[in-house]
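Troubleshooting log. The previous structure file for this entry was overwritten by mistake, so regenerating from the original sequence record. Sequence copied from the archived sheet and checked twice against the printout by T.R.
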Amino acid sequence: MYTIKQAARLTGISESSLRAWERRYGVVAPRRSGSGYRLYDPADLETLSRMQRLVAGGWSTAEAARAARAASATPSAEGQGATADHLRDAEAVACREDFLRSAALMDAAGTEDSLDRGWSLGSFEHVVDSWLFPTLRALGDRWARGEVDVAGEHAASHAVHRRLSAAFEAAGSRSRGLPVVVGLPPGSRHELGALAFATALRRRGLDVLYLGADVPVGSWQEAVRRHAARAAVLSVVMPEDRPPAATVAERLRADHPELLLAAGGTSADDLDGGVRTLAADIGPAAEELDGLLHGERAG
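Regenerated output below.
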């Protein structure tokens, strides 16, 4: 059992907040010693720490208290699943805020710590679709509002690039399937989405040649030829990327009429030349392309 002073030291919550949270929200009900002093058990400390993380992640104190109490109870299987989802969502919010705060402060250690925690929220595809890219969009919004300096935005983005590159390399041992080329058209440099997509394809067992950013038309032609690619996927992020992407697709279609051409990204809709527009999210887009390739092979 722990006194209130010990509980404050172990959780990082002030004694006054511990008393207020107990009195106003009933988040825990510590026992009392014979002299009337509060005594906290390990479960109490876990509940309090959980509430503190939720508050830090942007929850109201009352909402955080309800969620923390629910997690410490023993609900039905259905209720337990809902509570677990609720807490994972809260942890995702907390990780996002920590990442954005670290970017604003140019705190490299804080950025890496928030990425560690964010990466633990689920599978690669779940993390990039539900946490990483929403977080990067929020980073861009804060940069546009002047809340994050361009140096902080670049440092944080490069940290993400390193993580995605490591994930791409780690997935390489699975690459035994059909050959695919992924990259960006000439002049386009926003490559995090393309790299995440290439990684998701590798995780599905496809043999991915990732070209990166700003790839000249002739280099696309050479890569498809040398890799004997069955599909080429262009990442079209900005409206100005569309004309060069269309040129790449036109040249590749002329060279390889049988090649499956696809595009992903926020500006990928309705490219000419029979280019297939993939789903917006990384996981579904990788699944879609994999299905198209294997359906094509089966046909």
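The chain has three domains: 1-73, 74-173, 175-298. Archived copy saved in two places this time.
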